[in-house]
Amino acid sequence: MFDINNILRENIKNLTPYSSARDEFQGEASVYLDANENAFGSPLDEAYNRYPDPLQYNVKKRLSEIKGLPIRNIFLGNGSDEAIDILFRSFCNPGVDNVIIVPPTYGMYQVSANINDIALKRVNLTAEYQLNLEGIAEAIDKNTKIIFICSPNNPTGNSINREDVETLLANFNGLVVVDEAYINFSRQKSFIQELTEYANLVVLQTLSKAWGLAGLRVGMAFASEEIIEVMNKVKPPYNINEASQQLALKALQNVDQVNEWIKETLAQRDKLVLALKNFDFVLDIYPSDANFILVKTTDPKAIYNFLVERGIIVRDRSKVELCEGSLRITIGTPEENNILIKSLQDYK
Ligand code: PMP
């Protein structure tokens, strides 16, 4: 049985979190002389002289409407990268604990583990880019705190079989983190619906992809109230700045616009795949559930360099295990995709 107290670090259990200026007095006052801010104003028009809401109530309220989830189940990070780091710092003891990743996958799980001095166990995906459940079961030991699953997976683009993730959730006594950065582009439904079923589930999403707000740095973690409480205790007090909170709230009114972009991205993805398949140097394109495709080529490095010379940057993943020979290409606007195809027509 999963029990958060079995995986929480002792120092975090006993932590007195930083109490921000506005935590202790929660009402409305007319004179704020509590936080050593500049009382005269800011060089900007808006009220940036004041610290932002540490728990980002307004943004969470809107997200709660969109996701159909109570505010107490939502954590906001400075990008979902911050949520990943906060999970390490909350649950993994440096030099003692380990986490499992399933390569090829998103690079930050490894980087964050390295920064936090947490050992990594790597259980490669199968040749079909699915979970090796037996391998994962063998890798789990008493110090394994988190298993990171990315679905749709970066860089392969495919979704991970739902039943396999559920098997892990049901049998593992640590956290299963399902990173859904690309879920808006996917045919699969989100794991958010499973939060009531599994106390050990953490779902990550972000405003950086479909929402078009990579520059704002706003990411989300959805989990049980207990897990969210811990993450809020560990995060820096003002991790989402005032400008990001205001702009995220404004952007979150634009669901229709985002859905339009998603539709257009998927249509462009189909077109791009068809066009790329005509080239002799394209060996395979893995079926994608995301806004990028993994394209296996005869000579990735040469193609990469050829495109760079024409001012087009794709991601060379050819040295990544199980992605040998592959370039990861983000779906662009129709114009950008045409430029890519036109340029590749001049290759060889
Ligand atoms: N997870 C995955 C799978 C990603 O690909 C990325 C961004 N490349 C992130 C998380 C981080 O996103 P954010 O901008 O929210 O930090």
Automatic annotation (TrEMBL):
Residue numbers of N6-(pyridoxal phosphate)lysine PTMs: K209
Gene: hisC
The Aminotransferase class I/classII large domain, residue ranges: 46-344
Keywords in alphabetical order: Amino-acid biosynthesis, Aminotransferase, Histidine biosynthesis, Pyridoxal phosphate, Transferase
Name the UniProt record assigns to this protein: Histidinol-phosphate aminotransferase
Superkingdom as given in the UniProt entry: Bacteria
First-level EC class: transferase
Quaternary structure and partners: Homodimer.
Required co-factors: pyridoxal 5'-phosphate
